């Protein structure tokens, strides 16, 4: 009798649990519209994606399926990948809804207020409800991803639809490859000029990400530099060897669109 009740309980759980979001369908969308350029910056063909009604609907369906999940029950790596995918998919939705735009910062949040970077943009608009909680992009990044996982590499995974941002991966993030993909994303950004630039005089300028989220990278210039060295190519690591301070920060908010 006990085994029958256990089987019935398991069947009830499976019937009541939401279906997993289709990451394979999301892979197809990303591979279709996201591609690297010769300059090392991955770009999104927003114009073509926006014109494809079926693929816009597929993106919306993916976000809805993601929102129906129970990430609080996921193992750590799966939850980490889940929140990255949700953040990036919602960002794509926002751009597609308002395209053409020159920059994501041209899209304002509902109501007033700045995000944690001191910037006006769409990050504070509530966009998606997960496990009964209405969330904005700012909530996902700064109330969930950063404090929960405490991994500075998250900044190389989430994409703000801008040239200055780390590249949007052209496939979904997955628990099975999460650590390797985070390392690869960190190396790709740090070894690109928009991540780190060393002048002829040895002076170092870095992305504004390292100023906005300084505490995630050690809280000081020396902490940021140590982080950069960890993922730098041998040549960049050599040039950073005697560096003790950062002279400036840059960020390009132009849309990471194609064409």
Distance between the termini: 66 Å
**Whole-number mean pLDDT:** 92
Number of helices: 10
The major β-sheet equals: 3 strands, mixed
Q: Please list the strands of the largest sheet in the order they lie side by side.
A: 5-6-7
Helix content: 40-55%
Number of domains: 2
Task: Describe the protein's topology.
Elements: H1 2-16, H2 23-33, E1 34-36, E2 42-44, H3 46-51, H4 53-67, H5 76-98, E3 128-130, E4 133-135, H6 137-149, H7 178-190, E5 196-198, E6 204-207, H8 209-212, H9 221-231, H10 234-240, E7 248-250
Parallel strand pairs: 6-7
Antiparallel strand pairs: 1-2, 3-4, 5-6
Helix pairs in contact: 2-4, 4-5, 5-6
Explain the overall architecture.
With 259 residues, the protein is mainly α. The chain has 2 domains: 20-178, no CATH class; 196-245, no CATH class. It is 46% helix and 8% strand. It has helices spanning 2-16, 23-33, 46-51, 53-67, 76-98, 137-149, 178-190, 209-212, 221-231, 234-240, and strands at 34-36, 42-44, 128-130, 133-135, 196-198, 204-207, 248-250. The strands form 3 sheets. The chain has a 3-stranded mixed β-sheet with strand order 5-6-7. Helix 2 runs antiparallel to helix 4, helix 4 (53-67) runs antiparallel to helix 5 (76-98) and helix 5 (76-98) runs antiparallel to helix 6 (137-149). The longest helix is centred in the middle third of the chain and has 23 residues, at 76-98. The termini are far apart.
């Amino acid at each position: 009798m006990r085994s029958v009740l256990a089987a019935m309980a398991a069947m009830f759980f499976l019937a009541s649990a939401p279906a997993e979001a289709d990451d394979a369908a999301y892979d197809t969308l990303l591979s279709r519209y996201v591609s690297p350029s010769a300059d090392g910056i991955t770009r999104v063909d927003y114009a073509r994606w926006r014109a494809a009604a079926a693929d816009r609907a597929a993106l919306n369906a993916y976000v809805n399926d993601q929102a129906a999940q129970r990430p609080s029950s996921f193992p750590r790596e799966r939850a980490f990948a889940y929140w990255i995918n949700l953040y990036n998919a919602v960002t794509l939705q926002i751009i597609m809804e308002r395209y053409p735009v020159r920059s994501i910062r041209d899209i304002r949040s509902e109501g007033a207020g700045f995000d944690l970077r001191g910037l006006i943009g769409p990050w504070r608009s509530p966009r998606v409800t997960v496990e009964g909680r209405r969330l904005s992009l700012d909530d996902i990044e700064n109330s969930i991803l950063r404090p929960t996982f405490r991994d500075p590499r998250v900044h190389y995974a989430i994409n703000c639809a801008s040239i200055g941002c780390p590249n949007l991966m052209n496939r979904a993030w997955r628990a099975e490859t999460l650590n390797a993909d985070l390392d690869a994303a960190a190396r790709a950004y740090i070894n690109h000029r928009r991540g780190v630039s060393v002048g002829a005089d040895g002076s170092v300028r870095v992305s504004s990400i390292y100023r906005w989220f300084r505490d995630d990278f050690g809280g000081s210039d020396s902490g940021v530099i140590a982080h950069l060295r960890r993922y730098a190519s041998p040549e960049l690591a050599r040039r950073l060897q005697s560096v003790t301070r950062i002279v400036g920060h840059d960020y390009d908010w132009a849309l990471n669109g194609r064409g």
